[in-house]
Design brief:
The structure holds 3 protein chains of 3 kinds. Chain B is mostly helical. Chain B has 9 helices and 2 strands; from the N terminus they run αααααααββαα. In chain C, 71% of the residues lie in helices and 0% in strands. Classes of the chains: A alpha+beta, B mainly alpha, C mainly alpha.
Amino acid sequence: MLTAVTMILAAAVLAILAIAVAYVLGWANRAFHVEVDPQVEAILESLPGANCGGCGFVGCAEYAEAVARAGADVALCAPGGAGCARRLAEIMGVSVSRTFPYRAVVHCAAHEDHKLDRTPYDGEPTCAAANLVAGVQGCTFGCLGLGDCTRACGYDAIHVIDGLATVDYEKCIGCKACARACPRNIITMVPFKSDRMLVIACSNQDAGPDVKAVCQVGCIGCSACSRNAELMEMKGKLPMIDYDRYDEWADFTVAREKCPRESMLYVGKPSAEDLAAVAGEEMPSRIEADFKTTVDETQWRG
Amino acid sequence: MASQDPTAVERFINGILPENPVYRQLLGMCPTLAVTGAVKPAMTMAAATAFVLISANVMISLIRGLLKPHLRILVFTLTIATFVTIADRFLAAYMYQMSKQLGPYVPLIIVNCVIISRCEICSSKQRVGVAIADGVGMSLGFALALGSIATVREILGSGTWFGLPVMPESWPKWGIMVLPPGAFLTLGLLLGAAEWIGRKRAEKAKQNR
Amino acid sequence: METLVILVQIAIGAALINNFVLHYFVGICPFLGVSRRVDTAFGMGCAVTFVVTIAALLNWTFTYFILRPSAPLPAWVWEMAGGDPQTEIDLSVLSYIMYIFVIASSVQFVEMYVRKFFPHLYKSFGVYLPLITTNCAILFACLEIMKHLDDPTGLWGVHEALTLAVGGGVGFTIAISLMAGIREELDLCDVPEPLKGPGIALIVAGIMAMAFMGFAGVDQGIQNAIRLLLQ
């Protein structure tokens, strides 16, 4: 008898509680309603959510609000790419021209042996510090190879290989962290209108003899390329490529042949010929020291 | 994506070691630290959790068509609370001493992240058979984790295993092991060991490729 | 005056001696997850304290009036229905379900309220509120209060329940803020690879637990001091 009473009372208590709470929460939902812009919600859902900051805003939420309220460009999200820009354009009701992914390009081609006039450097092993010291390497414009960009990259997409920062285009998402970290500002963002792009791989603005004295592959400013290619123009002693008009079918063969140095490179994902050439080879495994001491990563705070 | 969902058997095997709820997913740490002072309460807790997990999986899988998205967490929690009440009353009736020793940690199974996350990830989207296999696998994995930690703590802390003496009389019992600091230290070091083993296996797999 | 002494004992017990995280192992998930930076950790601690107070208040009320073995409300209903007033009606089997229901609903309500009236506060700790629903610490505080409502001799009033809740929340905040401070420093240290992340965090928590064991007996000293002062 008591069991039945307990059960009935228990069920009644739960039922009354459920109804009361549902009523209170329903009231609260209406009374405490916060106007949430449905556009901001929709934009947030379309963004990849990596919170990388590449768009220039603090996180995906900030960018969503900026697009919805402050009219920010819908195509700023590099990891989202063209698909994301199209979705945002749909939500905002604007049209977006065909956008291309921006990827980091290092404007230097000098590996360890190409750099002349290099002195041994024992200071703080960062580019920012070495940049402040005179005489670390002959070329005051080029890549120092101490890895500030590698440490800044959150996607393991740039490494210092043989003294030169090299981008892995399979992994780069274009967040600009390396471009911001480079103290010599030789990493720029280039719209990749095809998988492989022609870039000017030198940042040295000195005249020919001065460049030859410090680097075996740097641009000497001879203008041979710009005379033979429409999309190239000399700015001082360095050629610039007009990427807005760049076309993947543009023919730079003559310009590249005329260049007496190795200052123009195709960078990007490996081309079909490259892949075919190494198809049969075994990649040698990299031998790395299998111990690390704390001294290796110590920052010298002298 | 339906063809890429793990099958029932795969889920069962996943739950034991590859996606072990404690060592790999880092869920359900509260009971893991609290009841592993000795192997007996640890196994009782693992059994109670297994009962709740499997029953809740079955129930949620059966009513998965009725779940509204914004109310689903509440429904999961209430279902789990019901089964935990049953388990708690059962323990209080038939294993009173153990129930007193486990104390407030049996009702805390309600907020055990393992169960809610399995309901959310698996049983609210799969049919009953798959949900049961997932529940059983995860329960075995949980029991394995609890058992390993309890073994270390009990042998070092009291010189016994499941109440049976295994260390010689002269063993100075490491009292710290059965106290809270010992729980944290043991779990931290065992997590490090599990991570190390995982890395070694990943390296070997990469080399063999 | 004795009340004050007992309240001090409960508060210090919950905050330091039997710290929710380091002694009772509740709230480990947010403890490991949110303790990377001191400001987010402190926000989480404040949110937990806030929610545990509200939940403890509501659940004490329900337990005292409805759920405990000789609760007034079911007895009154039973009498109205013509039953024998001597029989004891015990609805405590509903405790867990009711507690978790009340906790989830009150967290939802608080989240809506904070979002509407304190948007700035919502930005800083509002996102943690849904996480707290499944936080063991809240349910544990309610269970501790329930334990002291089962015993007819030492029934806890609402003041004792609230002291336990606030003390527990403050203890959680202390523990998580300390852990966040240590983890910020650990980021710069040379931690072995397998232990990085939760491994080293748990080892540090173990050492912290050992340190907090030293607080045993502090409540006795403070109680004696209060008695002396108020004599």
